[in-house]
Design a protein that fits this description.
The chain has 244 residues and is of the alpha/beta class. It has ten helices and six strands; from the N terminus they run ααβαααββββααααβα.
Length: 244
């Protein structure tokens, strides 16, 4: 029977001071998970496409070399999503910014994915611009009106975006709710940042998963999301591309 629990190791993790890089990495992973679940809530197919998930272990190699191939690998978008209503595919890059600001200057080097959507998650808003818009000088600021809720080309439900925005705010503003985790069989080894990101998101989503909210999330096992394709089984994605 599933039950809520907090292990001694988990308590130590949650109270352990983290280096700035690790903390930012965890927040970035949480932002990715929130956006991934937003698309899944719309019945999109979600394929992991980022460097570390599509090519496990290659991050160590790309740190030791430079060049156009290196840059293209390192800039791979986080996800490819498929709209079930028209089968269109979209590249999606997710960034967390505490300041709520993002512009073309934040993209390093040449970016070879001109059709990608950049979704910027902050404690206050979820905003979005395409790479083409960014390259033409548009920027995301705390006061701009480039809200994800206003993008008609993705066709996402306004109320769901608002609910997931509330979840993001709940996490990133530093609340300390009760932790609700489901005890399951052991999982394959994951990096510490991924593990903590999953635990943290499960913690702040307590109100939503306990029936007080309407967000249909699967946070007891956030590393195996519904209809999401892990890198190890992306053969179906490759077949989908070849069929188009």
């Amino acid at each position: 029977m599933a039950r809520s629990f907090i292990t001694k190791d988990l308590k130590e993790y949650l109270h352990m001071p983290l280096p700035t890089f690790s903390a930012n990495s965890i927040k970035g992973r949480v932002a990715e998970t929130i956006i991934q679940e937003l698309f899944l809530a719309h019945d999109f197919n979600v394929f992991h496409y980022g460097m570390e998930r599509s090519l496990p272990g290659i991050a160590q190699l790309t740190r030791k070399t430079n060049g156009p191939v290196n840059q293209q690998i390192r800039s791979m978008p986080d996800f490819v999503v498929q709209d079930p209503r028209n089968n269109k595919l979209h590249f999606v890059e997710v960034k967390y910014r505490a300041s709520g600001a993002f512009g073309i200057q934040d993209i390093k080097g040449t970016y070879p994915w001109p059709h990608a959507f950049f979704i910027i998650v902050s404690p206050d808003h979820i905003k979005c611009l395409t790479y083409k818009q960014l390259s033409l000088g548009k920027v995301i600021t705390p006061t701009c009106n480039n809200l994800l809720i206003k993008r008609v080309d993705l066709g996402l439900d306004r109320m769901l975006i608002v609910q997931f925005g509330q979840l993001a705010k709940k996490f990133f503003t530093g609340c300390e709710p009760s932790l609700h985790l489901e005890r399951r069989s052991p999982r394959p080894h994951r990096s510490t940042s991924t593990q903590i990101a999953a635990w943290s998101l499960a913690a702040v989503a307590g109100d939503f998963t306990s029936g007080k909210g309407a967000v249909p999330m699967v946070l007891s096992t956030p590393w195996i999301p519904r209809r999401s394709t892990p890198a190890a089984t992306n053969a179906s994605f490759n077949g989908l591309l070849m069929s188009r």
